[in-house]
Amino acid sequence: MNTKKMVNNCKKKRAALHNLGCKVNAYETEAMGKMLSDAGYDIVSFSEEADVYVINTCTVTHTADQKSRQMISRARKKNPDATVVATGCFVESSKKRPEHADIAIGNNRKAELLKLIEEYEKSREPIEVFTDDNLKDKTFEPLRLSDTADHTRAFLKVQDGCNRFCSYCIIPFARGPVRSRAVLDVMDEAKALTKKGFKEIVLTGIHLSSYLDEGHDNADLSDLIKALSVNPEIKRIRLSSLEPGIITRDFMEKVKDVEAFCPHFHLALQSGCDETLKRMNRRYTTAEYKAACDLIREYYPDAAITTDVIVGFPGETDEEFERTRAFIKEIGFYELHVFKYSKRKGTKAYDMKDQVDENKKNERSRELISIGKELSKEYRKKLMGSKEEILTEEPENINGTEYYTGVTKHYVKMAVSAEGRERNVFYDGIVKEFLTEDILLLQT
Q1: The dihedral sign for the CA sequence 170, 174, 178, 184
Q2: pTM for the whole structure
Q3: How many angstroms separate the CA atoms of 410 and 388, rounded?
């Protein structure tokens, strides 16, 4: 099908997209934007009036559900005559078309976006397509990002779905079983991205640790990293969230020889208490988690280890929370992302006894956020006087002075003077001081 013919030749249509949720969603939203752009649409801001609105929804918390509904409603109010498309996890998990949406598209059907818009605009009959039947063969949805975004860092989706079924999480129901993208297909898209100027590739997925290309000698994530490193135009390879079980000596041996590999490990923790982890169905102990962190630091002594933590999980006592608090300090994370437990209907935790009071959740959240800030500052302080390199991303005015900011391989944000500098260029220098609480000055 020639997608460019799908747009009315009399008037160039406008499309606006809005993303909610994770990096996988962000990748898919940009890929859908590329589909629409290739079909002849002008891509405009979501705040503008458009002929087509696409909202890629999230359902990880009740707040995410609410925001998803709000953005769908906002699109309808912006242009009552527009075609409003709702897709993503909120749509998939509810298995129904949200109010104010004309088209509901399940998570593994986004590649059909143009066809479904065309069908709707011919018939004006609401459309609902979900993914149950589509996932029987566990195929990977053929969405490609390639040259869509004006960034220095490209997110490359290589995996979808999850088979873990943590007791609090609705995502396995919304995303379906694990599917992995072929190594050769990933390499092909990475090559296209570097040709467009991207120098850093971030491999992302719903459960990235489960990546496996059976058709390529059972290539796992470490094999994929090594395969991508053959491309000399890829200067950095970064990973999104991982599970601690993937950190083995074999994995570390493979990645240590990849010069482009970024020693930034986001290892999901969720709780630092074994009893809580068991109720969460997390399938590892705190001892196993610590062993993974120790192994990382054996190979990369200055590795940046970041994590997610849930507070207020059903049954979490003061004593259990205290164990989590102590464990976080023991590990010494670079960054901490704290979430308050949110009940999700359809999960095992939804009906668990001893639900934690919201005030208690707020109190525990504040405490861990404070600890996270202290740990992050400590990590940054250790960089003073060291030689670092950043890839510049955006110009930024800090305290009245113009800088270019970017991140190191360890994902620490730094800034260099903007004078004589450009975007998407590597600059190295000595770390001098804190410009802000979160940004360090790199003196070149």
Answers
A1: negative
A2: 0.87
A3: 10
